[in-house]
Write a structure and sequence with these properties.
This protein has 85 residues and is mostly beta strands. It has one helix and five strands; from the N terminus they run ββββαβ. A hairpin with a 4-residue loop joins β1 and β2. It starts with a strand and ends in a 6-residue tail after the last strand. About 15% of the residues have low confidence.
Length: 85
């Protein structure tokens, strides 16, 4: 997974607020049952992630190779405490 960071900043005369959101991008075969809100475990690190995008909306263009057309991508956030309750 590739990690990215988004920084939101709000400035005005009285305050400055910064929020940091860590995100990850995943790529899986189309036959993997994953959807918005799914939680999965990274078997290498043991970390848990929640899918924050709709994988079915991110597909390769029709002109892409057959291998790429067999994949879907999604964004995810790392869960701090493991599985949600």
């Amino acid at each position: 997974m590739k990690r990215f960071q988004i920084i939101y900043t709000i400035d005005d005369d009285q305050m400055k607020i910064e929020t940091y959101v860590d995100g990850y991008t995943g790529i899986v075969r189309k036959d993997v049952p994953i959807e918005y809100g799914s939680v999965y475990k990274d078997m290498t690190t043991g970390a848990y992630f929640r899918v924050t995008s709709r994988p079915e909306e991110k597909q390769a263009p029709a002109s892409a190779s057959p291998m790429l057309n067999g994949l879907k991508s999604f964004t995810a956030e790392r869960l701090r405490e493991g599985l949600p309750t």
